[in-house]
Amino acid sequence: MSADTRIQRKIWSRKDVGLTASVRQRNDLLVHTFVTDHPSLILLRRGRKIIRMSGKKIVLLPGDAVAVAPGTICDVQNETEREEFESTWVVCADMILSRFESARPTHKRLKSAVALKNLGDEFVQSFERSVQAIVTPERIPDIVADHRMQELLAWLAHTGLVFTADTPSDLQRKVRLMVGAAPERPWISRDLAQSLAMSEATFRRRLADQGQSFNEILIDVRMSTALTLLQVTDRPVAEIAYQVGYESASRFSVRFKKRFGFSPMAARGVPSQLHTPSGVPRMFNDRSRRV
Question: How much is the pTM?
Fold first, then answer.
């Protein structure tokens, strides 16, 4: 299968198996302070990816991969080679992650991000099989798809690390996950506080203790979701704006540029423009809405 037809520009989802999508760029992009909300594996196909976090720097070349733990905050830069960049990400279903983690109590739990380098063609083939398990459910039975995802996780376990099943205890992460599951909703802090069995005052105070406000989290999750949709789908900007809670595409574009420093169209990789990110993947409900 050729690189251009390997996977369409959409987010593929298979219940109890996982999610996958591909990022394709024709310009260099950099995003600052990107928060990864779900454990993710990313394979670089073309170009170069640089991840910086807390004094640590990871440089990926084609064939390399990176495992990113939930809650990781980093700067991510995608650099093109011959005007092309491509990566594919996979998020395993929580049920598979939980079973895999439970079976390996002596392995260390991944806390941030780790590069998977020099693993060779067998790793790449394993990654491709996991993608196909999500993309072609009609051809691959559930039990086989489950084993393919576990095989991919086994490559990380080969390094002595495993993902932690996504059961956040941190309030900030809980809020991000709740908003990320339905970014189009008209969220207000009172509703979230009630869902978390606390008063609105306590809810706001606890977030402030963590250096965040509800509004800051809401905007960041919406903009990060929009960035992902812009990079891995061909949906119109107005439709994406509506999917993340904005009826006005122009207001959305202003907010997006304020967050990332470039326009929504620049995130699409418009040729002959140099901008300075790329998305580390996130999980959310992939709902198409027409405007």
Answer: 0.86
